[in-house]
Amino acid sequence: MTSTDPAGYGDGTACVHAGLPEPVPGTPFLPGPVLAAPYHLDPENGPAAAANGYGRVDNPTWRGLEAAIGGLEGGECVVFSSGMAAISAALLTLVGPGDTVVLPSDGYYKTRAFAASLPGVTVREVPTAGPYPSFDGVRLVLLETPANPGLDVCDIAELSAAAHAAGALVAVDSTTATPLGQQPLRLGADLVVASGTKALTGHSDVLLGYTVAGPELTARLRTWRDDTGAVPGPFEAWLAHRSLSTLDLRLARQSANAAALARMLAGRPEVSSVRWPGLPGDPAHEVASRQMRRIPGVVAFTLPDAAHVGRFLSASKLVYAATSFGGTHTTADRRAQWGDPVPEGMVRLSCGIEDTDDLLLDLDAALNAARAATAG
Ligand SMILES: *Cc1c(COP(=O)(O)O)cnc(C)c1O
């Protein structure tokens, strides 16, 4: 895998060192969270004299995490309290009444719902796999690739060029990929918006979001965060930073588990529509292989109906029924229960970092149990 790190380091090294301060004897590698709302001010010169004044505006714990994510993505990062806080910040900063936004029809459902609620904004929904309409008259093209939950992939470079030619801005929701999977800014996008709740932090214990862009957009998003107060707590920001050092290892195991489980699922008669962009023959495989540096550990597949999914999840010892994805534990979510426009039996399986053989055995047994109950 070619390095994307400015210093030429590989992904593991880049993640371990992401955003860390220079070594100073007697200090920790990663300084702890600074839990402060106000900081001491210079009595005479006020906030101009020191970096920290009030925690909502900026603080040292965010700066560390923003340096880490910004370094991995190749731009300037602003962290938010959740992925939706980052996405709504981007939409409300970039789009106003009279504007048209292009959004994925198969992407994260809340993004569509939020955009549809904006007064005076026209939303055009397009499937991630295309075909894409002309971007004439469009203010913002928000791509989501791979799309959650269906895992279709679009060509960021090609669509960014088309959007820019029409005068539109391009944002990419890169949540599923993480910065190790793809770096949208290097592919021509103007802005990354993402949830850090998923694989980026990966321990199912933090809600976080972020944007990455150039200096001008970043300045506007920082002001927006301060004005609206969509701020992550320093403790969450620190937990996220602490988790980043293992991102390379976690993704490697998740991806290997997804490869094995996708192949196993594709061979079962009661399972249909197995989607994993790493599977040769998957409709997204060609673009993903060209664009992505690694394929995420999320697999989509469909069982005959909702009850079948319920029996499968009840019978499994290792797969937790849970929404969200990208964590160290393998989880599965029946997406129709949240209102996604997918078949009732559609499952988004998020592969954790358990041993591949254990997962294969457990899923096989649970699927057999679910099928036997159907037959009986
Ligand atoms: C989860 C998710 C979000 C929202 O993130 P939160 O941290 O839950 O607010 C946005 N986009 C995608 C693709 C997601 O998977």
UniProtKB/TrEMBL annotation:
Its cofactor is pyridoxal 5'-phosphate. Gene3D superfamilies: Aspartate Aminotransferase, domain 1, Type I PLP-dependent aspartate aminotransferase-like (Major domain). Keywords: Pyridoxal phosphate. The keyword Transferase does not apply. InterPro entries: Cys/Met-Metab_PyrdxlP-dep_enz (IPR000277), PyrdxlP-dep_Trfase (IPR015424), PyrdxlP-dep_Trfase_major (IPR015421), PyrdxlP-dep_Trfase_small (IPR015422). SUPFAM superfamilies: PLP-dependent transferases (SSF53383). The keyword Nucleotide-binding does not apply. Belongs to the trans-sulfuration enzymes family. This is Cystathionine gamma-lyase.
